[in-house]
From TrEMBL:
It comes from Ktedonosporobacter rubrisoli. Its EC number is 5.6.2.4. PROSITE patterns: HELICASE_ATP_BIND_1 (PS51192), HELICASE_ATP_BIND_2 (PS51193), HELICASE_CTER (PS51194). This is DNA 3'-5' helicase. It catalyses: ATP + H2O = ADP + phosphate + H(+); Couples ATP hydrolysis with the unwinding of duplex DNA by translocating in the 3'-5' direction. Keywords: ATP-binding, Helicase, Hydrolase, Isomerase, Nucleotide-binding. It is an enzyme of class 5 (isomerase).
Amino acid sequence: MKPSNPMIVQSDRTILLEVDHPRHAEARDALAQFAELEKSPEHIHTYRLSPLSLWNAAAGGMSAQHILELLSEYSKYAIPSNIATDIREYINRYGKIKLILRDGALLLTSDETTLVTEIMHNKRMQPYLLQRLDTHTIQVDASRRGHIKQALIHIGFPAEDLAGYTEGSPLPIQLLQTSHQDKDFAPRAYQHAASAAFYAGGAPSGGSGVVVLPCGAGKTIVGLVTMANIQRATLILTPNTIAVRQWINEILDKTDIPPEMVGEYTGERKDIAPITISTYQILTYRRPNGEEDGGSEQEDYPHFSLLTSYDWGLIIYDEVHLLPAPVFRVTAEIQARRRLGLTATLVREDGREADVFSLIGPKKYDVPWRELERQGWIATAECHEIRVSLTEDEQLNYALAEVREKYRIAAESPAKLTVTRHLVERHCDDQILIIGQYIEQLKLLAEELRAPLLTGRTSNGQREKLYEKFRRGELKRLVVSKVANFAIDLPDANVAIQVSGTFGSRQEEAQRLGRILRPKSDGGLAYFYSIVTRDTRDQEFSANRQLFLTEQGYRYIIEDAEALLAG
């Protein structure tokens, strides 16, 4: 018993952590490696051990013994015996079944004959089984490699995929030491480490997995290092056309690849080259009804052929937490290609983290955001939650509204306009992004602040012009809808004011903070303000939105709008 420690491990797999304890930060960083944050009120944070969190830890090389030692290090009381048993069992399940290739046949193998027998009789596995070769080996359908891994994770035994990869077309590519913009270029140590953890020197254990790094930490550079390691034709999938152009610019600036070897495959262009960059949106385009009569998936999604029409040696999934369901389905068919997922957060709002694990691969590299902040690779950020109140009339309107409307009424509170104006005046010399969900609210803000408004309807050309003006400092503020959540390179933005968001989306909160995390040339702070309507669904959703960032070590300073304005 160690009553001075910050943590309590409970028999229901929850872990309670004292926020104000002197050892909170080190205990939090330990927990983040193998547990998930569930709740984060002021004083006690609740984590949970889940099969997936433990399997990701196992895939990253953590042993059950190491996890139990960490829990014992920080726990007030002895670890419940059932928790120790669960941790050992789940950690040991990863890799208990292996996928291997032998003489062209795809095989499932395990040292445990009872497990092989269980798989043979499992209904979910039946469609993929061809024959049992011996007590330890089953031959399975090689064309269904991804589906097999999905089925196995659903029955609680994630496979370690050692079946290897097709090499893909050769692509000689070198990173430059001096970029074409005449700037010194050298990937950082953690970017090399992330790529090395993914590639594993070309061993069958490498080649599929996810690298988790904060926005602003240079995930694109991890992609470039990996391309240089693998030296094979590469397909890069991104959330939008702006991201496509940013990848192209980075490749042409920091490698020896000539422009004619880089293709853009979007709604505007359809070039395929040894390095091709596309969007999830174009891949999931479906022919309008009537063009096809119940065609195959390839016919329904005509651009899926991009994934198979070229001999890719590597597919990079940028912002993998946004991967749409149809792309999961086609990814299940291309498991022989190396697959690198890049993301700031493994959290998916649709709950399909297990599909990322089985189809893209397990987490291969992760580093706490605050660690990169301490090293100076991302800006130090100060997070504020400013609470406004509804007027009596608004409270009545809110009380009478349908459940679906309550959030919007709270999120669009006119009081937020006053607070935003105050914050913009406070930061008049800073580069400010005002971000929200509802277009009418953003139009009002843009008019009030005399700032340009960017929405999904703004053309790519116009967006790029405004972004460039912002980068040059000709524009000091931009009002943006959720188009700004992803892949905007605005290194000088140092203030973000969030007036509304996508319900309780943790990934969106991370992305929005990420917009201002690039290190500042003057070493200054970044400021993230979230304006929330108190005692409403807006405040409830805000608490959920903050979970991921709380797990990364960010604490929100709660402020009352009236006190802020009076000050």
